[in-house]
Amino acid sequence: AADRRGIYEGPGISVKLSALHPRFEPLGRDQVMIELVPRALELARMARMHDINFTVDAEEADRLELTLDVIAAVLPDPSLRGWDGFGLAVQAYLKRAPAVIDWLDQTAGGLGRRLMVRLVKGAYWDTEIKRAQILGLDSYPVFTRKAHTDVSYLACVHRMLDSAGKNGALFPMFATHNAHSAAAIVERATHGGIAPDAFEFQRLHGMGEAL
């Protein structure tokens, strides 16, 4: 279906690592690194062969570090050298989101590659809140007010556009149905001298069509 249109013009694919391995959780790290990394690498190679974007989807907060470990193991493989279609979804409601973007920027720069980063608000808010309450944690891994998530989203936008304009290490993919967020992104990109083809907007199928 991609018809060799490339990672920017053609369709892409998103994959949840938990769908590739039944023990994709912190306690299963050793098994995951042995068994899941080769699967993820194989899929990335297939995506490269078909010239499509391959994005690792975001999951619960306690799986974030393991997700980054898998990505760090897959990215340096020589078979992916020179390919800019690998990506990650980052959830702005996570308090660690800016740090994740910084890590991606540094990792891409270190490899001389460009990574595609999809910025979303977040999809597991209720689960994260309830889990933190059950565990009796001192704080939540996510922001508890929507306004704070919106501010975090825009802070992440600034980081990603700075990277896109500075060294091109990140290709931002802004997933939002919020008109204010979209307008703020366009304004920031325009005043920052960011070329229109240096980032893109994304939406869920059937949503945000008018915007």
How do you describe this structure in short?
This protein is an alpha/beta fold and 211 residues long. The protein is built from seven helices and six strands. Helix 4 (97-111) packs parallel to helix 6 and helix 6 (146-166) runs parallel beside helix 7.
Describe the secondary structure blueprint for this structure.
Blueprint lengths: L5 H4 L2 E4 L13 H22 L2 E4 L7 H11 L11 E6 L5 H15 L3 E6 L4 H11 L10 H21 L3 E6 L3 H13 L8 E3 L9
Parallel strand pairs: 1-2, 2-3, 3-4, 4-5, 5-6
Helix pairs in contact: 2-3, 4-6, 6-7
How much helical structure, as a percent, in the residues?
Answer: 40-55%
Overall, the morphology is: globular
Q: What's the SSE pattern?
A: HEHEHEHEHHEHE
Number of strands: 6
Report Rg: 17 Å
Low-pLDDT segments: none
DSSP strand content: 5-15%
Biggest β-sheet: strands ordered side by side in the sheet = 1-2-3-4-5-6
Instruction: Round the mean pLDDT to the nearest integer and report it.
Output: 95
- Contiguous helical run count: 7
**Biggest β-sheet: count, sense, barrel?**
6 strands, parallel
Task: Please state the structural category.
Answer: alpha/beta
Straight-line N-to-C gap? 26 Å
Description:
The chain is of the alpha/beta class and 211 residues long. It is 46% helix and 14% strand. The protein has helices at 6-9, 29-50, 64-74, 97-111, 125-135, 146-166, 179-191, and strands at residues 12-15, 53-56, 86-91, 115-120, 170-175, 200-202. A 6-stranded parallel β-sheet has the order 1-2-3-4-5-6. Strand 2 (53-56), helix 3 and strand 3 form a beta-alpha-beta unit. Helix 4 (97-111) packs parallel to helix 6 and helix 6 runs parallel beside helix 7 (179-191). The mean pLDDT is 95.
